[in-house]
Design goal:
Rossmann fold, eight-stranded mixed β-sheet, five-stranded antiparallel β-sheet, 13 helices, 39 strands, globular, hydrolase, serine protease, Serine_Peptidase_S9A
Length: 705
């Protein structure tokens, strides 16, 4: 009897094991990664032949391409099924912290107060105004939720309020391809004014009389190339300026005092400027400064002077001025840049200039007083912080409004009295349960291969000793754009689970001035990648993390960074996230029919030139994939992205699958709506963040709580 019972028990256990193995086997079959069809394409350039097995991915009408995209998305969905509960938990954590009604601090413009609302349960913003008097009634200008309700994707650019407050210009994109369509809204009737269909708009300005407007448009390769004027009384549309050099783009803006319309004609390394008096019915374009190789300008106006920034005499820019009845040759210097001080920008008001500087890598706000020539800095109370001015439309004012934040300080709206430098906090982003003092920030330096010191910004929860913790290191390093220390509510879910977050302020960005940028572009681009690797190695050396816990991330040109670094040092990292990554460098820079290509020859190089090709091919992420072990990787892209075409990450993933010699996870998430900036709607955005964080926690750090 005993033997029979034990036999039956063993038999049933065997059956359960076999069923389990059968199920596991089926799951393994189901979860086999997609295998893209190869179709070799041969390109011979400068005696080098490049073989591209996935060149045909460029043809979206080829059914194999869409089939492969669907296979990759299905595979990702199945692989992420086991993280669904975690995703939901992370999503709810974000909602718990931020899902509430938010109303902005109103901005006074003449007799109106303008503001916007983000309401709980609504994906999009509602723009409002009311009269600046007690008990005045709220007027909804635009409810973006209503405009967006029939679209999967919707992005609105809130344009210009006419000076008589009767009209609003706005534009919208319903695909994610950044083709914006213009509308002029009558603020009394709340109906759009009848004008011809104007697509591809890139900038806009009403004239002084509010009966016509200037606008710029882009061509079929997304280059803003022409300035036009539309007369709202006669319906006449006039071409005022067209730029045929494909390296240059044109944009229009109106000065804050409403007296001048500026036209900038700029490449990534030089610029030319014109102005039109906003009350000039003849629409005469007047040249301010002619373009010159490697010389840049930006202009504003106040009183009797044109004020401008230029790098003509100083690599980190000088702020200068000349009288409006004179010429640029008669300029005088207002503020001089230096090797350690870069002037990034400025705004001109009636009695002062607000000047935005970067001193030894730290962003600073300076006020320059026009009457005396004196200047003073405003102290935010944190060295490693960032800020941006906003809601400062009025020319005559005695305060400046800024939004200030740091890695641990939420977005804080401050009105700064220009004379006393007293800052009045108008609003602090409310985050339920958040306590700033629970987090520690550090600003440290790693030594690069050539001895340069590379700053790293870090933040972590103080209840975790920062020793051998999971660490997420972010990088960009391109176009001279600084990687400023920004606050992120969604990041708290990682920090509170013992993750350190870091930003590597590498060369190619503008974190330590213009030279920092120049030393990370063209024939010095390798500095960007080796700087990032030096930062990673330093964090490991100092015990913050280890190769088993270090993850890297970057988007767009930052995706090129991550792709290049993975080829150079794959063993240094446990995982990587690449968002809309620019990874097919050579093919893209050879195709001048694509958006941005020609304009970016000055950033990356032109592979038609042998010397430049020889340098670019050394680091091109797609061309340097090799048979080796790579870490766990998540790649994200959008089918309608016009900045980095969908086929770049698609090809990169297919080639990576064909070459990698490991069993680590490689996932591609191709969004079928949206563009370079991802999905639209705040709740979709929260879901994307929860997805990313779940991938990190589950597949890389094995943190499933």
């Amino acid at each position: 009897m005993f033997m029979v019972k034990n036999f039956k028990k063993s038999f049933y256990l065997l059956i359960i094991v076999l069923i389990t193995l059968s199920i596991s086997s089926k799951q393994l079959k189901t979860l086999t990664p997609p295998d893209a069809i190869k179709e070799p394409h041969y390109l011979t350039i400068h005696d080098t032949t490049l073989v591209d097995d996935y060149y045909y991915f460029r043809n979206i009408d080829d059914p194999r391409v869409m089939n492969y995209i669907e296979e990759e998305n299905k595979y990702t969905d199945k692989m992420m099924l086991k993280t669904k509960k975690l995703q939901k938990k992370l999503y709810n954590e974000i909602l718990k912290k931020v899902d509430k009604d938010e109303i902005s601090v109103p901005e006074r413009r003449d007799s109106f107060l303008y503001y916007y609302k983000d309401l709980r349960g609504k994906d999009y913003t509602i723009f409002c105004r009311r009269k600046d008097k007690e008990n005045s009634q709220e007027e909804i200008i635009i409810d973006v939720n209503e405009l967006a309700k029939n679209y999967q994707f919707f992005d609105l650019n809130f344009g210009e309020i006419s000076s008589d407050h009767r009209m609003l210009s706005y534009s919208f994109d319903t695909l994610g391809n950044e083709n914006y369509t213009l509308r002029i809204l009558d603020l009394k009737t709340k109906k759009n004014i009848e004008i011809p269909v104007i697509d591809n708009i890139t900038s806009f300005a009403f004239n002084k009389y509010n009966d016509g407007f200037f606008y710029t448009v882009q061509n079929d390769i997304s280059r803003s190339y022409a300035l036009r004027y539309y007369d709202m009384k006669t319906g006449k549309d006039t071409l005022l300026f067209q730029e045929d050099d494909e390296r240059f783009s044109v944009y229009v803006n109106k000065t804050r005092d409403r007296d001048y319309i500026f036209l900038s004609v700029s490449s990534s390394t030089s610029s030319e400027y014109y102005y039109i008096k906003s009350d000039d019915r003849d629409l005469k374009l007047n040249l301010l400064v002619k373009r010159e190789k490697d010389v840049e300008y930006s202009f504003d106006h106040s009183g009797l002077y044109f004020y401008y920034l230029t790098n003509k005499d100083c690599i980190n820019f000088d702020l200068k001025r000349f009288r409006i009845d004179s010429t640029i040759e008669n300029s005088t210097t207002v503020i001089k840049g230096s090797d350690s001080l870069m002037i990034e920008g400025f705004d001109a008001f009636e009695s002062f200039l607000s000047v935005y500087e970067r001193v030894n890598g730290r962003k600073k706000l300076k006020f320059y007083y026009l009457a005396t020539g004196d200047s003073k800095y405003f102290d935010f109370g944190e060295d490693n912080c960032t800020f941006y001015p906003f809601s400062n439309s009025s020319f005559k004012r005695d305060s400046l409004r800024v939004s200030y934040m740091s890695l641990k300080t939420p977005s804080t709206v401050i009105d700064i009295d220009v004379k006393s430098l007293k800052g009045v906090v108008k609003k602090v982003e409310e985050i339920k349960g958040y306590k700033k003092d629970n987090y520690v920030t550090e600003y440290i330096y790693a030594k690069a291969e050539d001895g340069e010191l590379i700053p790293i910004s870090l933040i972590y929860n103080k209840k975790y000793d920062p020793k051998n913790l999971p660490l997420l290191l972010n990088g960009y390093g391109a176009y001279g754009m600084p990687s400023d220390p920004y606050f992120s509510t969604s990041r708290l879910s990682l920090l509170d689970r013992g993750v350190i977050f870091g930003i590597a302020h590498i060369r190619g960005g503008g974190d330590k001035g213009r030279k920092w940028y120049i030393d990370g572009k063209m024939f010095k681009k390798m500095n960007t990648f080796t700087d990032f690797i030096s930062c990673a190695e330093y964090l490991i050396e100092k015990g913050y993390t280890s190769p088993e816990k270090l993850v890297i991330e970057g988007g767009s040109a930052g995706g090129l960074l991550i792709g290049a670094v993975l080829n150079l040092k794959p063993e240094l990292f446990k995982g990587a996230i690449l968002s809309v990554p620019f990874v097919d460098l050579i093919n893209t820079m050879l195709d001048t029919t694509l958006p941005l290509t020609t304009g970016e020859f000055e950033e990356w190089g032109n592979p038609q030139i042998k010397e430049q090709f020889d340098y670019m091919i050394k680091y091109s992420p797609y061309d340097n994939i090799k048979p080796t072990k790579y870490p766990n990787i998540l790649v994200k892209s959008s089918i309608f992205d016009t900045r980095v075409m969908y086929w770049e990450p698609l090809k990169w993933v297919a080639k990576m699958r064909d070459n990698k010699l490991d069993n680590n996870v490689l996932l591609l998430k191709m969004r079928m709506s949206g563009g370079h900036g991802g999905s639209s709607g705040k709740y979709n955005w929260y879901e994307e963040i929860a997805f990313d964080n779940a991938f990190l926690l589950y597949y890389i750090w094995n943190i499933q709580r």
